[in-house]
């Protein structure tokens, strides 16, 4: 199996059980080994009391992209810790894209960077996720 096919099959297996990302309105746009791109259109229910995209929604999008990237090798992997820096607000109607890429994978520990941008390419947030592989796989190989 090619790395890209393994990543796509891993994503399909995770997506089938990922009710939170689907509930939020996310879509998987691209998958490859150590890479994931997810998108979300900011709707009214995603906005906070300031009328901008809630930071938790932006974090959730970045975290989901991180999760798909770090599980792309069909090795069950979870977050150890994550951090985010917001650089601009997402606006109602914006199409947010979270692009996750692997920075390092050593043993059971990984580091992933996720950039969230809007439809014009404006950077909304930078996220760094630290992962830890656990027992199990997403599908039988």
Automatic annotation (TrEMBL):
GO terms for molecular function: acyl-CoA hydrolase activity. This is Hydroxyphenylacetyl-CoA thioesterase PaaI. The gene is paaI. The keyword Isomerase does not apply. It comes from Parasedimentitalea maritima. Belongs to the thioesterase PaaI family. InterPro entries: Acyl-CoA_thioesterase_PaaI, HotDog_dom_sf, PaaD, PAAI_dom, Thioestr_dom. CDD domains: PaaI_thioesterase. Pfam families: 4HBT. Coiled coil: none annotated. The keyword Hydrolase applies. Residues 50-124 form the Thioesterase domain. Keywords: Hydrolase.
């Amino acid at each position: 199996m090619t790395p890209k096919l393994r990543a796509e099959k891993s994503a399909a297996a995770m997506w089938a059980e990922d009710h939170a990302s689907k509930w939020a309105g996310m879509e998987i746009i691209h998958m490859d080994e150590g890479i994931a791109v997810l998108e979300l259109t900011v709707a009214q229910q995603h906005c906070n009391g300031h009328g901008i995209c809630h930071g938790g929604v932006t974090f959730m999008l970045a975290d989901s992209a991180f999760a798909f990237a770090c599980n792309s090798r069909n090795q069950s992997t979870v977050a150890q810790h994550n951090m985010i820096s917001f650089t601009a607000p997402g606006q109602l109607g914006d199409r947010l894209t979270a692009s996750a890429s692997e920075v390092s994978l050593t043993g059971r520990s990984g580091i992933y960077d996720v950039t969230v941008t809007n439809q014009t390419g404006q950077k909304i947030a930078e996220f760094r996720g630290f992962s830890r592989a656990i027992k199990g796989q997403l599908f039988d190989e």
